[in-house]
Amino acid sequence: MAIELPVISTTGFKIGEVSAIAGAVAPAPPALGPLAAFTGSFSGNGFNTIFRPDSLKTPTPFPVAPTDGVTDNVLELNLTSETLSFSDSLGSVPNRGTGAQADIVLNGVPYLQAINDITAGAPGTPIHLEPGLWMIIPSTTIPAINETTLARMASIPHGTTFVAQGTSSVIAGAPAIPAVDITPFATVGGGKIPFQSQIAANQTTHRIPQNLTGVAITQAMLTDPNTFIRQLLVGQKITSTTVISVATQPVPTPPLFGDGDPINSTSDGGSANIAFLLGDNNTPPHNPNAQNLRMTATFWIETVQTTIHVPAIKAGGPAVSIKGTPTTPGQPVPTFLVTSKHGTAAKAVVATYTQIQYSQSVFLNFNTLTWPHVSVATLVPTADVPVAV
Fold first, then answer.
1. In whole angstroms, how large is the CA radius of gyration of the chain?
2. Is residue 55 within 8 Å of residue 65, measured between CB atoms?
3. Pair 372, 225: CB distance under 8 Å
């Protein structure tokens, strides 16, 4: 006879410990720390750059024949809309220690990231879907890591999974977002190899889109994609920022380190690729189609303080929805849902909300070069932010 399995809903799903002792009390889940801000859904806009391979068998068609002499790559640029949704925390996730290392308990938050290309306008073209987990990890003796760390584990539709680990810190005020460079470099030797497609004014290169006239992509963004998120901080009052930095090859090492595919990876980075991306079974691969070598990412979780103008509300009256006011063009802002138990006259009210900004660099290997693939975005709560006056 068939065995019917119970249906498990992810809503409210909590991982627990299986004990040999009936009635044993499971350990309490550790605090989420910086991951506590990852709740609900966030949405906003971003900018994506990727040098992708261009096959001689299936070359990319262009409106205007390219004149840059390139035969192996296309620089794709995407203005994006994004939704980043978080589920309930997992609870106590037991990891068993060996020998002198005691058992530890993790906690974490599942997420789902969905990104559309809107370069030609909304709703655009879906280009990325990423399910994953953010996990918080206590200090350990084996390995000797004397601080709480974080890990991001994700699956990429093109055939890559990764584990990136790192740390977090809190700073006062707004972050100082550093520059990032998309210029490819020699995989052996590291010398930078710029391409004509990186020059915004050039209109006949191997680039999508070729002509950036009328497109909100500037030379400053091509030179430094972090310009896109940095410029959206103009005029904002940010009272504090939690900084989370993770990488598949954490620096410095030790104590943090990753463990990728020991056969096909070029190093101990925490990423793994399907056979197509690796191209062959050598170490390192001799002819990768697009090997995901490593990934680094920084998330800035910012507390933004803003002023909203609340109309008069009668005691017990209905809630009032007020859209936030951007301080610079293109800045995403949430909507506030204002309630007043005892009523209030019209007045200005200071409100706060969480804003997530990130910059991620994925390094791809093909045709003897390493190609930085940079994605950035600024996201605010999708649901109305409650404000009581």
1. 24
2. no
3. no
* Burial of 248 per CB tally in 10 Å (0-12, 13-18, 19+): buried
Question: Does 244 map to a domain?
Answer: yes
- Which domain range does residue 166 map to? 33-83+112-138+145-305+361-382
Within-domain flag for 344: no
Query: Is residue 339 packed enough to be buried (19+ CB in 10 Å), middle (13-18) or exposed (0-12)?
Result: middle
Which band of pLDDT confidence, cut at 50, 70 and 90, is reported for residue 81? very high
User: pLDDT band at residue 256, thresholds of 50, 70 and 90?
Assistant: confident
- Residue type present at position 245: S
Q: Which residues of 277-297 are buried (b: 16+ CB within 10 A; e: fewer)?
A: bbbeeeebbeebbbbbbbbbb
Q: Which helix (H) or strand (E) covers residue 110, if one does?
A: strand 104-117
Q: Prior bond to 123 cis, omega within 30?
A: yes
> Are 193 and 171 within 8 A, CB to CB?
no
Amino acid at 186: A
Helix or strand holding residue 277 (H, E):
helix 275-278
Q: Is residue 106 part of a domain?
A: no
Which residues lie below 8 Å from residue 36, measured CB to CB, with a gap of 6+?
Answer: none
* pLDDT at residue number 276: 81
Sign, Cα dihedral of 123, 127, 246, 180: negative
Domain presence at residue 129:
yes
Tokens (6 digits) for 30: 């550790």
CATH code of the domain covering residue 232: 2.40.128.20
Total structural domains in the chain? 1
Using the predicted structure, report yes or no on whether residue 265 has a pLDDT greater than 60. Answer: no
